[in-house]
TrEMBL record, chains A, B:
Highest taxon in the source lineage: Bacteria
Protein name: Cysteine desulfurase/sulfurtransferase TusA family protein
InterPro entries in the cross-refs: Aminotrans_V_dom, PyrdxlP-dep_Trfase, PyrdxlP-dep_Trfase_major, PyrdxlP-dep_Trfase_small, TusA-like, TusA-like_sf
Family of this protein: Belongs to the class-V pyridoxal-phosphate-dependent aminotransferase family. NifS/IscS subfamily.
Reported cofactor(s): pyridoxal 5'-phosphate
One Pfam entry name: TusA
Catalysed transformations (reactions): (sulfur carrier)-H + L-cysteine = (sulfur carrier)-SH + L-alanine
Gene3D superfamilies: Aspartate Aminotransferase, domain 1, TusA-like domain, Type I PLP-dependent aspartate aminotransferase-like (Major domain)
Organism from which the protein derives: Streptomyces fildesensis
Residue ranges annotated for the UPF0033 domain, each copy included: 396-420
């Protein structure tokens, strides 16, 4: 098995394992107690805080440990908003933040700042969303689904000029280096860098107004209640230091492997869109989408072929909507595959992946009776131009059919209408809203727009070629 | 070293250690993912939930894992209060609940129900505090500082009759057996039973109205956000099952050791009050207080003698007030020692403890120049009765002096006034409010009451013997 989903959870780093097992013996007691076992636990906690703070680039007394990255985000957002409640209840976030940030933002009045097709925020546009009543802004250091790195230092400078603190969710990037720039709050998650689950980091710079919400206690400066998960904290700090020592060399090596995937997948597999920024990106992560492919079937096929990857397609978990990140980018969501390589991934595993991928995609497409090749679409082009009318010459009823069927049915009939004519695709699948325009862009057809229909939505496409 | 503070954190059970280390290899992946590693993690999570639910005595779908017992309590209280917000914002708690319950209750209108001198709640009095706008009642299964077992089943029945859900904090008792009776919500903490830190339990019975507060996600039925701490969860469930198998035999053995401490400490050490219920108690926990002793010095002396215990005295941690539990019981707080024996504690360790304790106490008393013996107080009794006046014949100025100095100074002069005369002790130490009346009760002197003074408070004591 090759596990290519480090962005969900990295396998435990050997240093983390070693530190965790050692701390089970040395660090189980209550660090608040004054007896020997308690003092020993306190020493371990203090040392872990110093090591983690050094890796984050903050003072130890600015850093607390939380039970997870998600809890760090929830605590960070609610504490920062409460600390500036006199300023207002407005919050600025990017549209591609992790769901923990978006969930935390739901309590307030949030403005989501959009991204370009690579998933990148424009710092000036981000700053333009700040208002006099903005209490907090949130921008990830790098995106968890497509790997695009955000202009955090630039955004932090603009936020500082506007007097608004910036919270940076650094969950995906902290393994590779500290977050540069004048951020005010920072969050991270140990199991993303090869540390154990059960540990998040929340850094709040001195001078940032912060009022922890909900019941608190004397633990972690009153910012994270409950008995400290000390063995895991020790392992988290030790492994962060260890991955940092390897970060430059391993990052360069994995980045080269990712470049192989980025350049060769579109050659090996027809009708593929590689998404995310080609250079301003995490070293170990690449995402692509395959036309006419059902994400769940694709993941199942890759799993059987020995590869564990994740997907932002709809229908791949309990949700029926495609990933909010792909939606914000306006890119194809069907047949979406995210590959995130854990440190140490052998080059041969990536080659093996590139070897099996074409056949797995072909097999899923065959099962779905997908159009064989792009040529099939543009080849048949009888008849003349039917004028500029948006009245559909043909209606495809895809009601009740899930992604990628509506797109497949559209692709099959586009050759049946004259160039200039409009096809209406009726669909009640949320993914169609994203994938039909994306298909038009990939196929050089014109996406006219959508209209409410008696059932579902009518997506209008004009044949251009 | 003998570690006698299991009620703070029990050393890791061998089964917990074994399960944790195994789960580091098998259970690091995201249980929400559909690939092999994710499915394996999901199986471990499901099996752990089933095992823990069986030990709790609930259905697996009624139980979620939280990052700590404290977080379980916070989530349980806020979710239950929100689920019944139409009923009201009133909450009934016992005065001796764990601080996590009392902190959670601070957000609402809370009624604290008092306890008797053994720390036990009267179920009828508890039920009498229920009002038409009471949304929730909270009663611990057993007290964490003095070991007294609460009448939970009886309280649950009365709550049920009143239509109010009862939340039981079972942190201290779950190792010893399930909580009997018709509770509605239950919380617990793995590191109290020998599981790892980082895992709490929250059970919410079907039919109990519950609305999780704060941002949530798809984890743990939407009741505990953030990536599951799976290796620790696996270890928690496995160790709970293991300690339960040993509970009957080990409980009986430790209970006998506790009885030795309960009966012999007052014989070995003069001026000691053993607190907590003598029979309705946890098997492994006993607490006593020593007159004329500074809690921190006592803990330090015991630590140097090789024993790790905790204390509810003031001045033993960052707080200057005695434990709210001892205060609610109205018992002596100075020189307080809680002994809680971990499973497997050898009888010889308890004997060794009983061997060193008298000398450690004597040494602390000597340093404080404490009254040598009770006889010294009642021996000198010159003069006659000074009438029934509350006007002090003598004023002891203990302003600026911390526990146990005010009580020591009182004890030194009680023999200097005639029987029937009143001594006024001026003190600004919070512990005096508890310890001067407790001293009177132990010494058979009359506690007249307190009066506000220009500085601090005047505590009035009439010499009776």
């Amino acid at each position: 098995m090759s596990y290519f989903d480090a962005a969900s959870a990295a396998p435990l780093h050997p240093v983390a394992r070693q530190a965790l097992v050692a701390a089970l013996d040395e660090g189980w007691a209550d660090p608040a107690r004054l007896y020997r076992e308690g003092r020993r636990a306190r020493l371990l906690l203090d040392a872990s805080r110093e090591a983690a703070a050094e890796a984050v680039g903050c003072r130890p007394d600015e850093l607390v440990f939380t039970p997870s990255g998600t809890r760090a985000v929830h605590t960070g957002v609610s504490g920062a908003m409460a600390g500036r409640r006199r300023t207002g209840r407005h919050l600025v976030v990017s549209a591609v933040e992790h769901s923990s940030v978006l969930h935390a933002a739901e309590t307030y009045e949030a403005t989501e700042v959009g991204v370009d097709r690579t998933g990148r925020v424009d710092a000036a546009a981000f700053a333009a969303a700040l208002r006099p009543d903005t209490a907090l802004a949130c921008l990830q250091s790098a995106n968890h689904e497509v790997g695009t790195v955000q202009p955090v230092a630039e955004a932090a400078e603009l936020c500082r000029a506007a007097g608004v603190p910036l919270l940076v969710d650094a969950a995906q990037s902290l393994a590779w280096g500290p977050v540069e720039g004048g951020w005010s709050l920072l969050t991270a998650s140990a199991h993303k860098w090869g540390g154990p689950p059960g540990v998040g980091l929340l850094a709040v710079r001195k001078g940032v107004r912060f009022a922890a919400q909900g019941p608190t206690d004397e633990r972690e400066s009153g910012r994270s209640p409950g008995f400290e998960n000390l063995p895991a904290i020790v392992a988290a700090a030790a492994s962060l230091r260890a991955v940092r020592e390897e970060a430059a060399a391993e990052g360069a090596r994995l980045s080269e492997l990712v470049d192989r995937i980025r350049s060769r997948v579109p050659v090996l597999v027809p009708d593929v869109e590689v998404v995310g920024h080609p250079t301003l990106r995490l070293p170990h992560l690449v995402t692509f989408s395959c036309l006419y492919v059902d994400g769940e079937a694709l993941l199942g096929g890759l799993d059987r072929a020995g590869f564990s990857v994740s997907s932002g397609s709809s229908c791949t978990s309990s949700t029926l909507t495609p990933s909010h990140v792909l939606r914000a980018m306006g890119v194809l969501s069907e047949g979406n595959v995210r590959v995130s390589l854990p440190p140490g991934t052998p080059a041969e595993d990536v080659e093996r992946f590139l070897g099996v991928l074409p056949e797995v995609v072909r097999s899923v497409r065959d099962q779905l009776d997908a159009p064989a090749s792009p040529a099939a679409v543009s080849a048949a082009a009888p008849g003349g131009v039917s004028g500029a009318s948006d009245e559909p010459a043909l209606t495809v009823d895809s009601l009740g059919k899930r992604c990628p069927i509506p797109v497949i049915e559209l692709a099959k009939v586009i050759g049946d209408v004259p160039v200039g004519a409009v096809i209406s695709v009726l669909s009640d699948d949320e993914a169609a809203r994203l994938d039909i325009p994306a298909w038009c862009q990939m196929r050089d057809q014109e996406y006219v727009g959508e209209r409410a229909a008696e059932r579902g939505t009518a997506y209008l496409v004009r044949r251009r070629t």
